Amino acid sequence: MTKRTNKQYPNDFKQEAVALVIEQGYSVVEAAASLNITDKLLYNWVAKFKQQDEDSELSKDERAELVQLRKDNKRLLMEREILKKASAFFGKRNEIKYSFLKSLGKQYPVAISCKVMRVSKSAYYAWRKRPAIIISAQTLNLHRRAKALFEDSRGSLGSRELAKKLRKEDFDVSRHRVIGLMKRLGLVVKQRIAYKVTTKRKDSDAVADNLLNMNFNPLGPNQVWAGDVSYLKTGEGWLYLAIVMDLFGRRIVGWHTSKRMTTDLIEHAFLKAHRLRQPPKGLVFHSDRGSQYTSKHFRSLLKRLDCRSSMGDVGACWDNAVVERFFGSLKHDWLFKVAQPTREHMKQDVAAYVKYYNLERLHSSNGDQSPIEYENSFRKVSGWT
Prior knowledge:
Family: Belongs to the transposase 8 family.
CATH superfamily of the largest domain: Ribonuclease H-like superfamily/Ribonuclease H
CATH topology of the largest domain: Nucleotidyltransferase, domain 5
GO molecular function, one term: DNA binding
Keywords: Coiled coil
InterPro entries: Homeodomain-like_sf (IPR009057), HTH-like_dom (IPR025948), Integrase_cat-core (IPR001584), RNaseH-like_sf (IPR012337), RNaseH_sf (IPR036397), Transpos_IS3 (IPR048020), Transposase_8 (IPR002514), Transposase_IS3/IS150/IS904 (IPR050900)
Protein name: IS3 family transposase
Number of domains: 4
């Protein structure tokens, strides 16, 4: 078996070949074909000639500067490539960044990769030396459920409420553990500031007595309801929402939206609740002293349905605090976190939150049960239907 050797060409031949390209305007392919050599070989000769020609015109300092510039350019190109690949990992915890750096392998120098990811090189090497942490199936399921519950709440569940939710699903977790879990998974509660607009009654409208005196805990369902109106801002303009809440379990039993804030708005909400629940005579309906609730038309409706009206005192917002808290959670925890381009979109989003609120949202006043869970537990004990 003979050893393969590369053909050697004299310098004069190389210079003539390069001259065809540099001086006579031949393309590399044409010159290579005429000399019966490969394109790649001629490319190398031309590049080497240009490099030698460039270096011969530079001083010692200029050559050193050129070498440094080439190094810097190469480093910047690598940093740019790493940035493109790493965009999804910024803002994540260091362990995730370390895993990404490890996946790069020997493609880029570790020092440059760590600099781009803004992590310590020594910390990365220390992580590499640590034994891998094996996540059990139970822990993985805990992480998945925590993220799912947090996302279902539209990012509104704090550590206390998330811990309650997880314990209801038979996860043995403390609030302290959930705080660490939320930090590890990057679950951060975000809220926005709400706006508040109120209406004033007409002086000619009658005001009902305050029958509650801030006693928001009736002994059973359909004994005391409360209602209020709120303004919801959309890309098309304002949308007005009226709700009716059964104070026993904090359940929303009726609601209605409209482009206009009129008496019809609150009447529709109340009638929806009345048809759904069919409360007994003597039901107390509590509200503020807004012009819609003090109007003759709405007072006549309550009288016709054998319901008693109750109204909070002037300037005492806490007289209807339970309903105010509902509007606060509706806006802060839900509506303000997504764009609301149209009134129809807002209406559908309100419906989604009412469903979530009644079925999923836990209340400390209900013994950490949702409104519907609390009513169902009362039904089992009392036989109420």
